Amino acid sequence: xxxxxxxxxxxxxxxxxxxxxxxxxxxxxxxxxxxxxxxxxxxxxxxxxxxxxxxxxxxxxxxxxxxxxxxxxxxxxxxxxxxxxxxxxxxxxxxxxxxxxxxxxxxxxxxxxxxxxxxxxxxxxxxxxxxxxxxxxxxxxxxxxxxxxxx
Length: 151
Ligand SMILES: [Zn+2]
Known about the structure:
Elements: H1 4-20, E1 32-37, E2 40-46, H2 55-61, E3 71-76, H3 89-95, E4 100-105, H4 115-122, E5 126-129, H5 133-145
Parallel strand pairs: 3-4, 4-5
Antiparallel strand pairs: 1-2, 1-3
C-alpha cells in the first residue's frame, strides 16, 4: 500500500539516520536513506564520517547494489554527479532498478540541483519531492550556509 502516512514514516526514519551523522560529514551534508520493498525496510544508510560514502551508496551496498522494485526514501536529492568521478547516487539507484524515489529537499548546490532527478526520471523512475522538506532542511542548514553564492 502506498500512502502519505507510510511515506512519512519511512522519511522520518531516514531523517533520524541523517540526524545521527549530523556534524560528522563535512564537507558533505548529512543524508539519510531508507530502502523499502513491499512495505518492509530492506536497507538503510547515512552519509559516512567525512562525507563518504553517501547515504544511498551505503544503503545500496548492503543490498549488493540490487533493489529491484523498491522505493528509496532520501532526505536530500540523490546526487547526479560526483566531483571525485565516483558513480553518482542517482546512477546507482537506476542500476539497482528501484521503481520509486521519494526525497525531501532539493540539492541546494546551484551546480548540482536537479541533475539527479533528471537522471532518475529519464530512466523511468517515479520521483516525488518535498515530503517533510521542512524537517529535513535541518540536515543541510550548515551546508547551505557555506555554499558559494549563485551568480
Ligand atoms: Zn550521492
